[in-house]
Amino acid sequence: MTAAPQIPLRLVESLRKVDRVAVLTGAGTSAESGIPTFRQAQTGLWSQFSPEELATPMAFAENPKRVWEWYAWRRELVTKARPNPGHLALAQLARRFPQFTLITQNVDGLHQQAGSQEVLELHGNILRTKCSREGRVVEKWTDTPAVPPPCPHCGAHLRPDVVWFHEALPQETLDRAMAAAASCQVFFSIGTSTVVSPAADLPFIAIRNGAVIVEINPEPTPLTESADYVLAGPSGMVLPELLTCLA
Ligand code: NAD
Q: Is the dihedral of CA 153, 132, 191, 122 positive or negative?
């Protein structure tokens, strides 16, 4: 079993003094809830495909059935998943700072389930479905043999309301995330490989504006060398430990 790294006293002391904290989470934050990250090998039926080949508008145009079915499989994983101690600790941590912005690249809604309020979802939410032509969110549709099911308003394919590779992020959410990164005193980058832009730019915006950078990830990333603190362990262990140290 992996041990949680020691939380440096200097970090705890800094955190006691600051008012503005921003947190960016990625797929690693939900790994301990049983949702595989994109870099972890896909299993079973889907092992022959890489997510980069499935989570794109091109893949959907070429084979909408395959992409819909892959998301149906991931949606089922997400529906069964529960927040882990890392999600729960983040919801608690938010209460300790006057300004706390939680930004996530995850599409699983587990931060909200853990009690986090006002989560900036950069990449949408897999539990929502939208029309692939008009973009409107669709709550109900009649099941037909067609896969993906047709939009009840215009008949185009339905698709998950997530941001695929090569698609633009929701502008207002991104603007709020960038503003939080630019104004925070401490920036946490948790469970993200820091390679998918523009989310990967956020810690570097924080660095340029003088924030203290804390990375929580068992593996090094392109951010590691620039981080002030690297807590190299699973977020489900490190975050509860950090919360205890702050108590
Ligand atoms: P990624 O898959 O590229 O990287 C995951 C990172 O998490 C890696 O750096 C890995 O070392 C780290 N990690 C693994 N286990 C960890 C743990 N227990 N604690 C802390 N860190 C851990 O994920 P990404 O950077 O978020 O980018 C891929 C994109 O895929 C995301 O933007 C997201 O939209 C999508 N995605 C979402 C989910 C989800 O909603 N749960 C899952 C997979 C992919």
A: negative
pLDDT category of residue 66 using cuts at 50, 70 and 90: very high
Report the nearest atom of ligand 1 relative to the CA of 221. 9
pTM more than 0.85: yes
Ligand 1 atom at minimal distance to the Cα of residue 193: 9
Closest by alpha carbon to 229, among 211, 247, 205? 211
C-alpha distances (whole Å) from 146 to each of 45, 65, 213 are 21, 9, 48
Q: Which are the contacts of 27, defined by CB distance < 8 A and separation ≥ 6?
A: 35, 36, 37, 38, 39, 105, 106, 191, 192
Q: For ligand 1, say whether the CB of 39 is within 6 Å of any of its atoms.
A: yes
DSSP 161: E
Q: Give me the domains of the chain, ranges plus CATH numbers.
A: 1-35+83-123+168-247 (3.40.50.1220), 36-80+126-162 (3.30.1600.10)
In this prediction, residue 51 carries a pLDDT of 83
